[in-house]
Structures are given as structure tokens and as C-alpha cells.
Amino acid sequence: MDKVYDKKGLKKKSENLSDWYTNVVLKAELADYAPVRGTMVFRPYGYAIWERVQDVFNKMIKKDGVENAYFPLFIPYSLFKKEKEHIEGFSPELALVTIGGGEELKDPLVVRPTSEMIMYEMYAKWVHSWRDLPLKINQWNNIVRWEKRTYLFLRTLEFLWQEGHCAHSTHKESEEMVLRALDWYRQIYEDYYAIPVILGVKSESEKFAGGAATYSVEALMPDGKALQGGTSHDLGQNFSKVLDIKFQEKSGENKFVWQNSWGLSTRSLGGLFLVHGDDNGLVLPPKVAPIKVAIVPILGKKDNEVLKYCQKVKEALENENSEFPGKVTIFGDLEKSYGFRISETEIKGIPVRVEIGPREVEEKTLTLSFRIPEMTKKLMRLSEVGGKVEGILEEVQRKMFEKAKNFLTENIREAKSYEEFKSIMGSTKGFIKSYWCEGPSCEAKIKEETKATTRLKSLDAKAGEGKCIYCGKPAKFIWYFAQAY
């Protein structure tokens, strides 16, 4: 296959999405390959975006009374296998420690693929009475799942995430928590990543191992494939019965708690980069961009005056209480050419660029250029920029969401026949809405023949009278299908 490069050595997104993506992740200094196959290093620029997600999400969950904690990386294998469905679902991806301190371990240690078992072992010690509920704990940690095919951010052996785990006295209260967490993920995607998502419930085959029901937010990538953006699980009483997590009601009766868990990972950042990037590199929404404004001095005979003016502009643009907390950075490295510095701001996806030369110094003005083509340049006086930059950044954020929303809308199609279904999935892809009988054999055949999986049944789905897209038998609900990452 021919390698496609543009003038900056970047491969073109429009011609080879996979190569472009890897190229941009490396060139924008988001991450790099680590010595162990399938692992990666988060470079500071990439990690800064994840830190922003942590800041935003922590505010959301703490308002709801969720507290952060940390539980061990290692889980005794004897504990992990107590829940049968759980161990069966994760067995192919488990990493086991069998030797420690030079001796073979009698009970191997599972390297955390998720934390239900280790956390709930402790919940059983902590929960005794209705007064101990609800128990709402979140942890930010690393996860290890032994993936065969890996892809920077999107699928790695080790990744970062948050996982929330709650215990409640009633199923109704637990279900409400499941949907509340799902809406937090919607907010992260739509309000911060500027990516529209579809919310719904997973099929039996796609649900979390050991859970009663799984809900997810699904986003659409530029190649027409879906990305599972975050999941929230109704665990019922499955784990509480296995680990004996009981509480005494006010009446004195002992009952098992109702539980849920929910997680959002750094995989979501891969979706962010894929959706908005273009042939020139990253395109970051202002609300998560580590650098929101790049100031690029045009240096010449009046270098000192230009650099002093750049500092004044920087101070006018900075706002500690901003909804857009990214830095304002002066790209004034004299060792780099003006063209190189401009390219650097583009590759890194910085939302706004200000170019300043002697004329701007003399006229006390500045011109704002934008990373997205939907915005036109704005000439402003220095005295007015401080009060207007917030509104401008909000406009950039909104336009990015609108563009992604239009793409999603244009790529949701209904298939009335299986032939039409196969035709769409073999060409444009995207989401296909079709009636499905919810039979596992039809689901498996569709996946085998088209590579499409059931993504979800939307939260607002209403029962109807249709025929299964595959077998033709009566079906009550329309489901979303797509090929997926």
C-alpha cells in the first residue's frame, strides 16, 4: 500500500483513516508506543486531556455524593472466579501473576481487568445496616485486559478509566443510579467532546459478564463504525448474593443489596481524536483542549516589542474561572521558523490562533484564526478581546458539535429488508435501525455475515409490530446495528 503524506509529513485522513490516526497520535505527542506489545505511554499533552475529563467528571459525581477511593491492582484468583458468568466473560483477557518473590503462588493473582470482586469483598465487610446505604464509590485506576489486536487509545492491554460502584437498598434506587451515570457520560461526550451519542440498553450477548442489564452511549466514527463510549451496568443482586453483601432493614429483616457499576475509559479519547481531526492533524474542542489559544509572534526587527505585546495579549485572554481552562501559550521559540510554529499549532489541534507582528503592536489589535473551517477570522482590538473570548470559544464548541451531529444524523438509516441491510453495511456503514426478534441465533448470523453487531435499543424505544430483519419472525422493538471498534 502506498504511503500518503501531505506537506507536513502527515498522512491524509481522507485517504487512509487508520494510518492517519496513528500518525496524528504520535506527531501531536498524545502518546507513544511502549516496550511491551499493546501498551502505550501517555505523553503530557495527551494526559492533560484526560486530566480535564477527571476534573469535570469528579465535579459531576461528587455532587451526587460519590466518593473517590482506591482498591488493589491484584485480585486473588479464588475470589475472582466466585461469580461464574464474570470469570467466563473475562477469562480470555486475564493476566495472571503465578510467581512472586521467586516462589510459585498457591493462589494466582489476577491483574485487575475490572474491580467488582475486590471491591465487593470489602463492601461485604462495610455494609451491615440500612444506615450504611447507599454506598457510592468511584476509583480512577489502570486496567489490564490481554487484547490480541491493539490500537493506540482505542484498544490497549492496559488502559486508564474510572469505575463507579454503588450499593443500594432497593432496585429502583439502583436503576436510577444506572441511568444517572449514563447521562453523565452523555454530558462528557456531547458537552465536552462535542460528539453526539445514542443512549440505550445492550442485548443479552453484549451485556456485562455477571450483570442483569447493560446500558451504553454509542458514538459514530468517520469510517461509519460505532464506538462504545461508556457503559453503565445494572448488576441486580448477582454479586451481593455471591459475596454475601447484606443489610438489615429498619424492620429488622436482612436483605441483599442492589448494585450497579459504570465506567468511562481513555478509549473515549481515541473517539475524540477520530471524530474531529482532519488532514492537518488534531482538532480539539475548546472545553477539553490543554491549550485553548496559541499566540504566534511574527518576529523581525522589532522582536522585543512583539514579544512584550504577546505577553499583554496572553494576560488579556487568560481567565482562571473560565469554562475553558486550557492554557494560553506563546509559541515564540526563536529556533523554530514561523511556518513550523504555525504547523505545530495545527497538528496539536489548538482551537484558536493569534498571529502578532509589528503592525498588530502598532495598531493595538489582534486577529483570531480558528482551527475549524466553519469559523472566519476575527479582527479585534486588544481592549475588547478579554470580554469576548469566552463567547468565541463557546461558538467554536457549538459548531464542532453541530458538524458531528449532522454527520450522525446523515448516517442513521432504516433497513426494511436484509438485502438492504447488507447493502448498507457493505458500503456506507453507519447505524442501521431494524426490527430484531432478539433471538441470539439471528444476532450471531448477522454478525457473521455482515460484521455488524447489535449496538443498543434506544432508551425511548416504543414497542411496535414488525418483522425481524433476519428471520422474518414477529419483533417488538427496533434496534441499532453497526460494525464497531
From TrEMBL:
InterPro entries: aa-tRNA-synt_IIb (IPR002314), aa-tRNA-synth_II (IPR006195), aa-tRNA-synth_II/BPL/LPL (IPR045864), Anticodon-bd (IPR004154), Anticodon-bd_dom_sf (IPR036621), Pro-tRNA-ligase_IIa (IPR002316), Pro-tRNA-ligase_IIa_arc-type (IPR004499), Pro-tRNA_ligase_II_C (IPR016061). PROSITE patterns: AA_TRNA_LIGASE_II. It is found in: Cytoplasm. One of its GO terms (molecular function) is proline-tRNA ligase activity. Pfam families: HGTP_anticodon, ProRS-C_1, tRNA-synt_2b. Its EC number is 6.1.1.15. CDD domains: ProRS_anticodon_zinc, ProRS_core_arch_euk. Keywords: Aminoacyl-tRNA synthetase, ATP-binding, Cytoplasm, Ligase, Nucleotide-binding, Protein biosynthesis. It is an enzyme of class 6 (ligase). The keyword Glycoprotein does not apply. GO terms for biological process: prolyl-tRNA aminoacylation. It catalyses: tRNA(Pro) + L-proline + ATP = L-prolyl-tRNA(Pro) + AMP + diphosphate. The keyword Transport does not apply. Residues 37-285 form the Aminoacyl-transfer RNA synthetases class-II family profile domain. GO terms for cellular component: aminoacyl-tRNA synthetase multienzyme complex; cytoplasm. Consists of three domains: the N-terminal catalytic domain, the anticodon-binding domain and the C-terminal extension. NCBIfam families: proS_fam_I (TIGR00408). Catalyzes the attachment of proline to tRNA(Pro) in a two-step reaction: proline is first activated by ATP to form Pro-AMP and then transferred to the acceptor end of tRNA(Pro). Homodimer. PANTHER family: BIFUNCTIONAL GLUTAMATE_PROLINE--TRNA LIGASE, PROLYL-TRNA SYNTHETASE. Belongs to the class-II aminoacyl-tRNA synthetase family. ProS type 3 subfamily. This is Proline--tRNA ligase.
